[in-house]
Design a protein that fits this description.
The complex is a heterodimer. Chain A is 36% helix and 20% strand. By secondary structure, chain A is an alpha/beta fold. In chain A, the strands form 3 sheets. In chain A, strands 3-2-4-5-7-6-12 form a 7-stranded mixed beta sheet, sandwiched between helices. In chain A, strands 9-11-10-13-14 form a 5-stranded mixed beta sheet, with helices on both faces. A two-stranded antiparallel sheet of chain A has the order 1-8. In chain A, helix 9 links the parallel strand 10 and strand 11. Classes of the chains: A alpha/beta, B alpha/beta. Bound molecules: thiamine diphosphate and magnesium ion.
């Protein structure tokens, strides 16, 4: 179970997601001198969200590298560093700017081990803030996971809670293969939680059952996990029992956690902020249809963004694109009644 | 380009000059073998490097084995031979056998060897340039003295954004790297004048604030001298250099290309007149470095070596079908099926 209490213990600290990223990066720089951070404005400015603030003073410009504005080479140079034994953590300032580096992520990083038959490897972390609901308009709100989750050789994580952020970021840094680390920017300061002190990891590829329930299974990740949890809790009063699964990792995906839950509740709702067509929900639905069709008592439902290019800047446009705890609750209620 | 002129040995010993010539002969022989095997229906694909022999042998001689890192591209057969790859390894790649460095996964000519410091690269043009820069960064980061990266690519590849981004970053950080462009005037069917308005690639160096130089890529000794100077500058903290060796692609782009659809036989014949292999042979004989008998004996030995490597590699097994599932991630990983 995730830690959602704000209780402070001697062995843990309460922090938000941005602080969890910052604390983990700091410890990584401190504990492993192979670790370098590179990206736009990560040095003197300390990243646009101040995640790496003052790191450059303590660790120097050789380890905290302000790069030219050139995303393909930010990732590409990090790939070369990784091939030669460093542990680079590359930052793409906003996920919307990751497209120029698509080639390096998909064509190079994800295939380094495979194409050299294991002679070279690419232990690389690419961090990037993604997601909307922050009036970020077309080009500061995008979800990118579906563009990458098709790619074997790559791992993708999208934690929602500070304790998971730390555990999964540590796991990503320790991982011998490339990991795309997605940070939902609306959760950055919104979501607080207890984070254990010291080094620990949460295995990549393991989902987390946040709330047990008996009537339907909800699978989500990122910001929407929080809203789904809120919706599920509100339905308790109506006697609707919803199980909520936080995927945490998108690739590899915890298929058995999903199947186990669906076999118990016999109904599945996948919720994500990314648009529906070809999204993560499509794969989960196909997988459940293949493996557990006869366990289902209702058609699989997906609650996702509409199939439009992006959310707009105007409040009305953003609002229409984004879901809400109320919309989620309505869909859950509907499916429970089916 | 010069056709024949007296040998200027730039301080190279007879042994070094003979080594240069031998690498050039071996490159051409192995190159031809790939095409023969393709015509015999034994391999589906071959890609030649005829015309690049002098450039690659010269550059390889400047490379320090066991120290420097090579980030090559697919036309670098001679460069890889020159830094220590064996004909047998080359033939394993051509035959896509299990014992090949990448286990028969990549196209031929995508040589890599961790042992020799040759980085693995894909077929995606210019994608390896930032990797070379990252490797150069790692050298500086670990304060490893006297090491540098030699990064090559074709003329057409310099049009890619990643090329620019990488040279720019390396220049900002004054990294120990030499960008060596093998300008053979063609990128498949696209001539240099359609690739860039200003066709002297080395001149771009000024825009990055680094030294640049153009040289005759048909001259192995001049190539050696230029690459050595640049590598030494890199190794001693002097930063990157952009080098442009001008050569010519004598063959079609690959076995899947017919160059007579876009360039004339006359153009090829004209350039053949300065073929670096016979030209260098004539220079060595004239300078008394090599007798004609020695040259013939060397050619026979290289042919024998190629035959042996071919037979040995051909007899090796293909990767097993289940190798498809290996080395996706570290450890045992069961891909979905
Ligand atoms: C990104 C990318 N675009 C296109 C190609 C197809 N392609 C392969 S080789 C080549 C020409 C490259 O020319 P140049 O860089 O001059 O090298 P050369 O083959 O002449 O040695 C092209 C267009 C590719 N492999 N990768
Ligand atoms: Mg070319």
């Amino acid at each position: 179970m995730a830690m959602t209490t704000s209780e402070k213990t001697a062995s843990s600290q309460t922090m938000n997601n941005v602080e969890a990223v910052r604390a983990t990066l700091y410890e990584a720089l401190k504990n492993d001198d192979r670790v370098v951070i590179l990206g736009e404005d990560v040095g003197a400015r300390g990243n646009v969200f101040l995640i790496t603030k003052d790191f450059i003073d303590e660790f120097g410009p050789t380890r905290v590298i302000d790069t030219p504005i050139a995303e393909a080479s930010i990732v590409g140079i990090a790939v070369g560093m990784a091939m030669e034994g460093l542990r680079p953590i590359a930052e793409i300032q906003f996920a919307d700017f990751i497209y120029p580096s698509f080639n390096q992520i998909v064509g190079e990083a994800a295939k380094t081990r495979y194409r050299s038959n294991g002679e070279y490897t690419c232990p690389l972390v690419i961090r990037t803030p993604y997601g909307g609901g922050v009036r970020g308009a077309l080009s500061h709100s995008v979800s990118i996971e579906a563009l990458f989750y098709h790619v074997p050789g790559l791992k993708i994580v999208a934690p929602a809670f500070p304790a998971d952020v730390k555990g999964l970021l540590n796991a990503a840094i320790d991982d011998p293969d490339p990991v795309l680390f997605l940070e939902h920017k609306k959760t950055y300061r919104l979501i607080k939680g207890d984070v254990p002190n010291g080094h620990y990891t949460i295995p990549i590829g393991k989902a987390n059952v946040l709330k047990e329930g008996s009537q339907l299974s909800v699978v989500s990740y990122g910001l929407y996990v929080h809203w789904a949890l809120e919706a599920a809790q509100s339905l308790e009063a109506e006697g609707v029992s919803v199980e909520v699964i936080d995927l945490r990792s998108i690739r590899p995906m915890d298929r058995s956690a999903i199947l186990q839950s669906v076999e118990k509740t016999r109904k599945l709702l996948v919720i994500h902020e990314d648009n529906k067509f070809g999204g993560i929900g499509a794969e989960i639905s196909a997988m459940v249809a293949e493996e557990a069709l006869f366990s289902l008592d209702a058609p699989i439902r997906r609650l996702c963004a509409p199939d439009v290019p992006a959310m707009g800047y105007a409040e009305t446009l953003e609002h229409e694109f984004m879901s809400s705890p109320a919309k989620m609750a309505a869909t859950m209620r509907d499916l429970a009644r089916f | 380009m010069k056709t024949t002129s007296a040998l200027d040995r730039r301080g190279l010993s007879d042994d070094h000059l003979r080594e240069l010539f031998r690498t050039m002969l071996l490159q051409r022989q192995l190159d031809n073998r790939g095409f023969q095997l393709n015509r015999q229906g034994k391999v589906p694909f071959a890609l030649g490097s005829e015309g690049h022999e002098a450039l690659q042998a010269g550059a390889a001689l400047a490379f320090e084995r066991g120290k420097d890192i090579l980030a090559p591209y697919y036309r670098d057969l001679g460069l890889c031979l020159g830094v220590g790859m064996t004909p047998y390894e080359i033939m394993l790649s051509i035959f896509a056998r299990a014992a090949d460095h990448n286990g028969g996964r990549q196209f031929p000519n995508h040589y890599s060897s961790k042992k020799l410091g040759i980085l693995s690269f894909s077929s995606i043009l210019a994608a390896h340039i930032p990797h070379a820069v990252g490797a150069a960064y790692a050298i500086v980061y670990r304060a490893e003295k006297g090491r540098a990266v030699l990064c090559t690519c074709g003329d057409g590849t310099t049009s890619e954004g990643e090329w620019h981004e990488s040279v720019n970053f390396a220049s900002v950080h004054r990294l120990p790297i030499v960008f060596l462009v093998e300008n053979n005037l063609w990128a498949i069917s696209t001539p240099i004048e359609k690739q860039m308005a200003q066709p002297e690639i080395w001149k771009r160096a000024a825009g990055y604030g680094i030294p640049g130089k153009r040289f005759d890529g048909f001259d192995p000794v001049e190539t050696y001298a230029c690459v050595k100077e640049a590598l030494e500058r890199a190794r001693s903290g002097g930063g990157p250099t952009l080098l442009e060796g001008v050569c010519y692609r004598f063959l079609a782009h690959s076995t899947d290309d017919n160059d007579m659809t876009y360039r004339t036989k006359d153009e090829v014949t004209e350039n053949r007149k300065s073929d670096p292999v016979p030209r260098f042979e004539a220079q060595l004989v004239e300078a008394g470095v090599l007798s004609e008998e020695e040259a013939s004996a060397m050619k026979r030995a290289v042919l024998q070596e190629t035959n042996d490597a071919t037979d040995r590699a051909e007899a090796m097994p293909f990767p097993s079908a289940t190798d498809l599932y290996e080395n996706i991630y570290e450890g045992a990983w069961q891909p979905w099926q």
